[in-house]
Amino acid sequence: MVHPRHRLDDAFQTPVRFSLMAALGTRDEVDFRTLRELLESDDSTLSKAISHLERAGYVKVTKGYAGTRPRTWVTATAKGSSAFRTHVRALQEIASPASPTDSQELGWRLSSHSS
Q1: Is residue 50 part of a domain?
Q2: Is residue 28 situated within a structural domain?
Q3: Residue 39, domain extent
Q4: Residue-wise DSSP of 19-88
Q5: pLDDT higher than threshold 60 for residue 113
Q6: What is the pTM of this model?
Q7: What sequence ranges are listed for the domain Winged helix DNA-binding (predicted)?
Q8: 36 exposed, middle or buried (CB, 10 Å; 0-12, 13-18, 19+)?
Q9: 61 pairs with which residues across the strands?
């Protein structure tokens, strides 16, 4: 059996990128300002996170106008949503305690230390 850490995606290794994908969830699209407020981020950090995920093909960025004001909207792609779900499942597997049977199968040794 392969350790779940091998299914972690480096694209989600920063808290802002991870939070960004979580915030997008299954929503159609979210505007930059809303994301900035949800994530409590500054413009530069959020912009860099979006660019990184866009290069990975995990988000799609649409630019346009709301009235006369320029706006940026971000949407998770199918590829990004799938990768994020895989990443989260791997984190859950890592965080959940292995049963004694699993530990024995994997050759993991449980030890206790007394003080």
Answers
A1: yes
A2: yes
A3: 4-94
A4: HHHHHHTT-S-EEHHHHHHHHT--HHHHHHHHHHHHHTTSEEEEEEEETTEEEEEEEE-HHHHHHHHHHH
A5: no
A6: 0.80
A7: 16-94
A8: middle
A9: 74
Q: What is the CATH number of the domain that holds 80?
A: 1.10.10.10
List own/partner pairs for 3-8 with CB under 8 A and 24 or more apart.
3/94, 4/89, 4/90, 4/91, 4/93, 4/94, 5/90, 5/94, 6/90, 7/86, 7/87, 7/89, 7/90, 8/87, 8/90, 8/91
Per-residue pLDDT at 22 exceeds 50: yes
Domain count, the chain: 1
| Residue 87 is assigned to a structural domain of this protein | yes
Given this model, what pLDDT does residue 111 score?
39
Handedness of CA 45, 47, 50, 52 (dihedral sign): negative
Domain presence at residue 13: yes
Tell me the residue type at 69: R
